[in-house]
């Protein structure tokens, strides 16, 4: 079974995310980028809320955080996560209202706890992680002690000790055992039941003996060499059925039908002839061997390619010829790739242009409102006529007057627009300004109308984010298949040629042999049939007509004498059925008697068993302390401390102090761990990590502790989600951290999701974590938002592409 992977995320009006955002997650590595406040933390918190129904970091900061999860501009929202395992999709969802959160589908409690504690590291928790463990102290009930106890299974040992404590006093043990009078009454009842079982069994045994005697007589009459008894009923039934009259009659009828068919076959064989030239079987064998060798070398790969192509195109049926099938696949894949590329490019262009057009319309609407305000102020001082003429200029497009519809060119050589402008300028000094504003407002209005039409047109054809992600996946699959069919061109051509040679050679040999052996095959078939029914074969001197007549007489003679045996075989079957029923009844009586006798024996041994169990329980209690101490030393030294040290040294190679857990050296009833630091050169243990490490390395210690705890427990969920964990790291730490993420993703099978706000760091991680082999994958999510528009999430999938430039140069 494959690993459980995150498939997609849908967020609607959650925290700083406004509107609906769809983010595909089905890749080995998912990188999230966005400026501060763009919604990165909200996106990762949405995953936690959908899977667990809670947001742990917010709950620790504010117990009433659920009322702050819904975006302030919305009245309802939701978060939904889809996971994928073996083509089976699971959905988890939480609904957001003004009153709080309602989880409709979430992980089971153990997996939800694993996700919160071992798979997801929020940004707010990173700086508090070491402090939480460091301030826990040595109290056995502290969070650190509880976690480590659960990790090592010590809570089970404690529960075992508590459960065995009553065994220390024999009086407590006796309280759990039935009283002696009750035990004696139960024993008397069982004595009576056992006697009744014996009498019933004796009656059944008498009927069995009578039926066996009659069955032995029938077996003797049928001359069967068989000793009849209770253990041989299956053998007796098989012997009767194997030589039964019904089977014999059915065989005779079948043999007569076969004899008729053979007669017609002989007639056809006598008439058949041919004039085909002879063919050498060696040529057919050579052609077949070459084609089989080709299938052995390349058949599995070709069949796998055909299955993937037909799975991608449900309406496509590939021919059996390998080369023809490859040509059909290549043509269909090329057409599909071109169409998908065009649709993906157009969808991304529409998404970018829609955001720009909406921003441009907001600016244009603001300009129009400003012009309207200024025109309103000028109209009262310029006079009613100047205002009317200024408004009229926006509608003059040629020499036709927009008021009277007359051609102004008939009465004046001056253009109509210039004439109106002169009139306006003569009214007042402010009229010129009013004229300019009227023209500008007309241009702005035209711009707004154009943008409205463009926004409506893009919105009508815009694809949803989930549909765009599905197109990306299908395009990646088509590109991979196109590359594979190109690499198989020569192999497919050779397979097609060998297949044609094999078919041609087989056909020639078949036709040649059928000409030579037609009549001989007919005689041999008749002889084989004669031998199969116990008759002499048809010799070369015997005609076909005589042979058929002889065999027909023999089959007729075999039909006689079977009626007498039929009734005895039926009676024998009835007796066997009766015996099996009686044996079943006797077995049930024996089983009930055995159960009652076992219960009687348990009453006899109960007190002795109670004392034995008490002794064993006390021995287990004594062994608990020894086992607990051994587990603590082994797990901390060999697993957790070693993994934490390796990770910390890898990210901070220049730090002399290494954080670790301090473990007890002697046997202990309760685990009391605490955090310390050790110098690489040895010596006594240092102080706590908070006192010995710098701020940057303290952040590194917390990050490596989280990853070490993740790797130290069984992998219930293969996810590692980190929210901006590199804020305090320098370039060396970041480079080592990128290498660590690459190792976790590509060698340890973890699905890594990391969010960063720095653009250069995002580009660096995208390069370092890019796909390195065929099944590897990388998804980038870029978040952006504006004060008056919804949040936008642009996804881009990066698949593995083989470098061919160096191969061509070589």
TrEMBL record:
Residues 6-763 form the RecF/RecN/SMC N-terminal domain. This is RecF/RecN/SMC N-terminal domain-containing protein. It comes from the Bacteria. It comes from Sphingobium chungbukense. The lineage of its organism: Bacteria, Pseudomonadati, Pseudomonadota, Alphaproteobacteria, Sphingomonadales. Gene3D superfamilies: P-loop containing nucleotide triphosphate hydrolases.
């Amino acid at each position: 079974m494959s690993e459980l992977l995150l498939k997609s995320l849908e967020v609607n009006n959650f925290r700083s995310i406004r509107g609906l955002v769809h983010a595909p997650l089905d890749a080995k590595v998912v990188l999230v980028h966005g400026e501060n406040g763009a919604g990165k933390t909200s996106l990762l918190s949405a995953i936690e809320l959908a899977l667990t129904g809670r947001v742990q970091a917010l709950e620790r900061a504010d117990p009433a955080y659920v009322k702050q999860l819904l975006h302030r501009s919305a009245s309802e929202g939701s978060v939904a996560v889809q996971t994928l395992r073996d083509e089976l999709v699971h959905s988890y969802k939480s609904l957001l209202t003004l009153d709080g959160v309602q989880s409709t589908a979430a992980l089971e409690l153990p997996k939800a706890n694993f996700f919160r504690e071992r798979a997801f590291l929020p940004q707010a928790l990173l700086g508090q992680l070491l402090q939480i463990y460091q301030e826990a102290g040595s109290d056995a009930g502290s969070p650190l002690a509880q976690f480590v106890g659960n990790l090592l299974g010590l809570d089970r040992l404690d529960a075992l000790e508590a459960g065995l404590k009553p065994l220390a006093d024999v009086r407590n043990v006796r309280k759990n055992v039935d009283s002696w009078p009750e035990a004696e009454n139960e024993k008397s009842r069982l004595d009576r039941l056992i006697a009744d079982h014996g009498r019933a069994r004796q009656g059944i045994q008498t009927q069995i003996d009578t039926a066996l005697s009659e069955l032995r007589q029938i077996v003797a009459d049928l001359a069967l060499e068989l000793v009849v008894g209770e253990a041989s009923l299956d053998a007796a039934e098989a012997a009767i059925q194997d030589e039964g009259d019904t089977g014999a009659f059915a065989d005779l009828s079948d043999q007569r039908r076969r004899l008729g068919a053979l007669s017609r076959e002989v007639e056809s064989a006598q008439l058949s002839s041919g004039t085909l030239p002879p063919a050498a079987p060696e040529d057919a064998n050579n052609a077949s061997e070459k084609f089989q060798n080709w299938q052995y070398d390349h058949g599995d790969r070709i069949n796998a390619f055909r299955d993937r192509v037909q799975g991608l195109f449900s309406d496509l049926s590939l021919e059996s010829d390998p080369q023809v099938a490859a040509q059909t696949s290549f043509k269909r894949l090329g057409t599909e790739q071109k169409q998908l590329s065009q649709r993906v490019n157009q969808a991304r262009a529409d998404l970018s242009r829609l955001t720009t057009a909406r921003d441009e319309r907001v600016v244009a609407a603001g300009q129009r409102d400003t012009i309207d305000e200024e025109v309103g102020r000028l109209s009262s001082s310029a006079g009613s006529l100047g205002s009317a003429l200024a408004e009229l200029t926006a509608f003059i497009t040629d020499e036709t007057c927009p008021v009277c519809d007359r051609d102004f060119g008939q009465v004046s050589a001056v253009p109509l627009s210039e004439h109106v402008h002169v009139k306006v300028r003569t009214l007042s000094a402010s009229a010129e300004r009013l004229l300019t504003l009227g023209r500008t407002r007309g241009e702005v209005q035209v711009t707004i109308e154009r943008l409205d039409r463009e926004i409506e047109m893009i919105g009508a054809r815009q694809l949803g984010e989930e549909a765009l992600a599905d197109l990306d996946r299908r395009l990646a699959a088509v590109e991979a298949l196109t590359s594979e069919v190109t690499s198989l061109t020569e192999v497919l051509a050779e397979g097609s040629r060998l297949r044609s040679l094999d078919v041609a050679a087989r056909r020639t040999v078949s036709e040649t042999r059928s000409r030579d052996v037609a009549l001989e095959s007919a005689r041999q078939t008749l002889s084989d049939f004669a031998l199969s029914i116990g008759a002499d074969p048809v010799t070369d001197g015997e005609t076909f007509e005589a042979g058929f007549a002889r065999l027909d007489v023999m089959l007729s003679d075999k039909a006689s004498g079977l009626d007498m045996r039929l009734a005895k075989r039926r009676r024998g079957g009835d007796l066997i059925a009766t015996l099996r029923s009686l044996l079943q009844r006797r077995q049930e009586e024996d089983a009930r008697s055995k159960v009652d006798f076992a219960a009687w024996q348990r009453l006899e041994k109960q007190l002795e068993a109670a004392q034995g169990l008490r002794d064993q329980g006390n021995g287990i209690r004594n062994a608990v302390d020894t086992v607990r101490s051994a587990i603590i030393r082994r797990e901390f030294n060999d697993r957790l401390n070693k993994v934490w040290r390796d990770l910390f040294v890898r990210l901070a190679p220049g730090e002399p102090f290494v954080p670790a857990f301090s473990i007890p050296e002697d046997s202990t009833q309760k685990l009391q761990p605490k955090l310390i630091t050790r110098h690489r050169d040895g010596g006594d243990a240092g102080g706590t990590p908070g006192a010995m490490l710098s701020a940057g390395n303290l952040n590194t210690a917390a990050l490596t502790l989280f990853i070490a705890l993740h790797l130290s427990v069984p992998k219930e969920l293969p996810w590692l989600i980190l929210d901006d964990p590199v804020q305090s790291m320098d370039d060396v730490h970041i480079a080592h951290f990128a290498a660590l993420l690459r190792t976790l993703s590509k060698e340890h099978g973890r699905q890594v999701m990391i969010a960063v706000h720095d653009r250069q760091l995002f580009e660096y991680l995208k390069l370092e974590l890019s796909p390195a082999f065929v099944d590897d994958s990388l998804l980038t999510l870029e978040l952006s938002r504006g004060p008056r528009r919804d949040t936008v999430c642009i996804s881009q999938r990066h698949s593995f592409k083989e470098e061919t430039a160096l191969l061509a140069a070589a």
